[in-house]
């Protein structure tokens, strides 16, 4: 009997679902092979080891986020661009909830162990946010905080906190949650605006 061909992407998605719903103790090559209807060799052929698979799951989560952010146009209205980034951030999390849950879980390794490529993948999204924030400061839409990373940290923390609560089912009904999210984004932008 031949083992069905399973792609690396399918392995990553199955691993993300296990990590997000059952934690690191549930993740094993045997369990993944069973979930995917294939052999354990499939996992090792694609990734070499379980730690490499976990790193691939985290990297894929950030790649999906970057795909959403990179699709956004840069306009003449940096404030509107920041709102668009916030919307894209949430859309990515809702489309990829298991990947999103693993991206920030710390399951892959300690920051000091990350390669330059891994750090670059993780920082790309934040740099996109920094660029939009810098343009908003230069256009006078936001007050100059004196630190170009201040707004990206604020905005990311706000979006991440809201979206994490939403994915956990702790914020409102689906009918009202987007309006609440945009109100929070607006409040953060208004608090940061020039006076």
Automatic annotation (TrEMBL):
Residues 28-47 bind DNA. It holds the Pfam family TetR_N. The keyword Zinc-finger does not apply. GO terms for molecular function: DNA-binding transcription factor activity; transcription cis-regulatory region binding. Residues 5-65 form the HTH tetR-type domain. InterPro entries: Homeodomain-like_sf, HTH-type_TetR-like_transc_reg, HTH_TetR, MT1864/Rv1816-like_C, Tet_transcr_reg_TetR-rel_C_sf. It comes from the Bacteria. The keyword rRNA processing does not apply. Keywords: DNA-binding, Transcription, Transcription regulation. This is TetR family transcriptional regulator.
